[in-house]
């Protein structure tokens, strides 16, 4: 296996297959990153909405 020969259990991959696999790996990594950013945005948004709501509740309860 160290001589650069393809493994016996599968066919040799063409350069197109290697590049397609690499492209797919990069696409999946970017998709994971984008999904994480969406969850962070949602978390900050919900936190902000609740913070504003608590400030408004405090302001209404302490108004004279």
Give a brief description.
This protein has 64 residues and is mostly helical. It has one helix at 15-61.
- Low-pLDDT segments, ≥5 res: none
Mean pLDDT: 86
Strand content: under 5%
Number of helices: 1
Distance between the termini: 82 Å
The outline comes out as rod-shaped
Helix percent reads over 70%
DSSP, total strands: 0
Largest sheet: none
Rg on CA atoms, Å: 26 Å
**SSE succession:** H
The structural class is mainly alpha
Structure, explained:
Helices cover 73% and strands 0% of the residues. The chain is an all-alpha fold and 64 residues long. It is built from one helix and no strands. The chain is rod-shaped and about 85 Å long. The mean pLDDT is 86. The longest helix has 47 residues.
Output the keywords:
single chain, 64 residues, mainly alpha, 1 helix, 73% helix, 0% strand, rod-shaped
Outline the secondary-structure elements:
Blueprint: H1 15-61
């Amino acid at each position: 296996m160290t001589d650069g020969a393809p493994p016996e259990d599968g066919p040799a991959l063409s350069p197109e297959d290697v590049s397609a696999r690499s492209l797919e790996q990069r696409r999946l990594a970017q998709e994971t990153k984008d999904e994480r950013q969406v969850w962070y945005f949602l978390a900050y948004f919900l936190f902000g909405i609740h913070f504003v709501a608590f400030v408004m509740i405090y302001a209404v309860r302490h108004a004279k």
